[in-house]
Design a protein that fits this description.
With about 300 residues, the protein is an alpha/beta fold. The chain has one domain (about 10-225): TIM Barrel, CATH 3.20.20.70. The protein has helices at about 25-35, 55-70, 85-100, 115-130, 140-145, 150-155, 170-180, 195-200, 215-225, 230-245, 255-260, 280-290; strands at about 10, 40-45, 75-80, 105, 135-140, 160-165, 185-190, 205-210. Strands 1-2-3-4-5-6-7-8 form an eight-stranded parallel beta barrel, surrounded by five helices. The chain is globular and about 50 Å long.
Length: about 300
């Protein structure tokens, strides 16, 4: 039986940028403290929401290092170290381990993609190279590459491949994966709006975009599930569903970064090729946030 890296809600944290496009570490530190003070159970640095795809190697490593120093053991830190280049994924994962990351998140290869056999070979190569807990990340809407349940069952045999961030929007596929893998693989949903359904099947939590703006509420929903109070979890989940969905009114992390800015943080804009929300979408986002008391 695998010991979970965390249970509950892990924030896929945004990366604040200065006007010149450099990383704003001062504001990033404020975001980390805000998350921990409001009950976030773990922090994912350099995920999709953190714009890792637009970071060079030095920036990527510096963000992971800063996150670990700022968190200082208060919650687990998961480092995004995936790549469509297996050798580079191995290099990043080794650096994250050496810096002291509690675990790594490794996305399926994108653009070049691969077969199911290729997925096994890719993740096995990384897991063989570095002795650190690995979460494999399945997000076919972005990568064009989907991990099938039978492939998960094969991956779960590796002692370092301990979990998945499952973001393929299919509750049925998640159920089949859980049935095949049992206690050998921890499942976290990567879809905020599927937190309660996936946890009702045995998932241990969520790696969340929504938590960037409502960490306490996302933690509470996940904790209710862990406590077996699915009726109240569903009630809270449905209450916040409109706000969760608003975080995806445009390409992630454009809306959530704008939302964090509206709340008073200074996170700047996303790096190109992501562009700011249109004025009409900003107005719609603000209206939803006003309904929930996040902005005036």
């Amino acid at each position: 039986m695998q010991e979970p890296i965390f249970t509950g809600s892990c924030v896929a944290i945004v990366t604040p940028m200065n006007p010149d496009g450099s990383i704003n570490y001062s504001e990033y530190g404020k975001l980390i403290d805000f998350q921990i003070e409001n009950g976030t159970d773990a922090i994912l640095a350099c995920g999709t929401t953190g714009e890792s795809a637009c970071m060079d190697h030095q920036e990527h490593c510096k963000v992971i290092e800063y996150t670990l120093e700022k968190v200082n053991g208060r919650v687990p830190v998961i480092a995004g170290t995936g790549s469509n280049d297996t050798a580079y994924a191995v290099e990043l994962t080794k650096e994250a381990k050496n810096m002291g990351a509690d675990a790594v998140l490794s996305v399926t290869p994108y653009y070049n993609k691969t077969s199911q056999a290729g997925l096994v070979a890719h993740f096995t190569k990384i897991a063989d190279s570095v002795d650190i807990p690995m979460i494999v990340y399945n997000v076919p809407s972005r990568t064009g590459c989907n991990i099938k349940p039978a492939t998960y069952a094969e991956l779960a045999k590796h002692p370092n491949i301990v979990a998945t961030k499952e973001a393929n929007d299919s509750v049925g596929a998640a159920a089949e994966t859980l049935a095949l893998c049992g206690d050998n693989l921890t499942m976290y949903t990567g879809c905020d709006d599927l937190t309660v359904p996936i946890m009702s099947l045995g998932g241990k939590g969520v790696i969340s975009v929504f938590s960037n703006i409502m960490p306490k509420e996302m933690h509470n929903i996940a904790q209710l599930c862990l406590d077996g109070n699915f009726a109240e979890a569903a009630k809270q989940h449905l209450h916040y569903l409109e706000l969760m969905n608003a975080m995806f009114c445009d390409v992630n992390p454009i809306p959530v970064k704008e939302a964090v800015n509206m709340m008073g943080f200074n996170c700047g804009e996303c790096r190109l090729p992501l562009v700011s929300l249109s004025d009409s979408k900003k107005a719609e986002l603000k209206a939803v946030m006003q309904k929930y008391g996040l902005v005036k």
